[in-house]
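Long-time lurker. I teach an intro course on protein structure, and each term I like to show students one example going from raw sequence to a predicted 3D structure in token notation. This year I'd like something fresh instead of my usual example. Would anyone be willing to generate the tokens for the chain below so I can use it in lecture? Attribution to the forum is fine with me.
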Amino acid sequence: TYVKEGDEVKVGDLLFTYDTSDDQEKLEQSKIDIERRENEIATTKVALEKAKKDEAKASQEEKLDFNTTILEYELQIKSNENENVAAQRENEQLEEAIRSADVVSELDGIVKSIKSQDSSNNYYDSDSSENYITIMSVAYRVKALINEQHINEISEGEAMIAFSRVDGTAWEGTIVEINTEKGESNQQESYYMGSDDSDNGSATNYPFYVE
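-- Reply from a regular --
Happy to contribute to a lecture. Here you go:
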């Protein structure tokens, strides 16, 4: 495991790797077994062809023995071929397991929890998910206001940058919602009473949200 609780991770960061040593040993042994059966198949096919030729020249009494031998050779070949097909399927699964041994993060976020591997503890808690590592996506939803004169200048999906008033830190975001149904009056009578300046006196502001 390459991370610990509280670590910040990005998409593609390596989280942990499965131990595939057993799978690799099984794969190597399986390949040896497949090669051995292929050699047996080749040898048996040679013997089968010889038995068929000998049968053609054998007497009627001897043909029964040759038929039995030929049948045994054919069954042996078929059995080895079937075993190799099954072994090849298992090998493909082992190879896929080995290829996918490295597990990377699929999102940006914070490592929230890592399951304990201590054998003295219950590895899977009954009241939680069975994920080995849980990552919490870190996203902020910021509410902003725009007045009615400028609301047509923005659109959902548009990129935005939010700046901190404290230290100037900047965060990139995207407009995810513009609410044109919940206008907020900007009229401040103590300052604009009797004013006909609609931009400052009675403009309506609409909330929009940046994630």
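Some talking points for your students: The mean pLDDT is 85. The CA atoms of residues 183 and 206 lie 5 Å apart.
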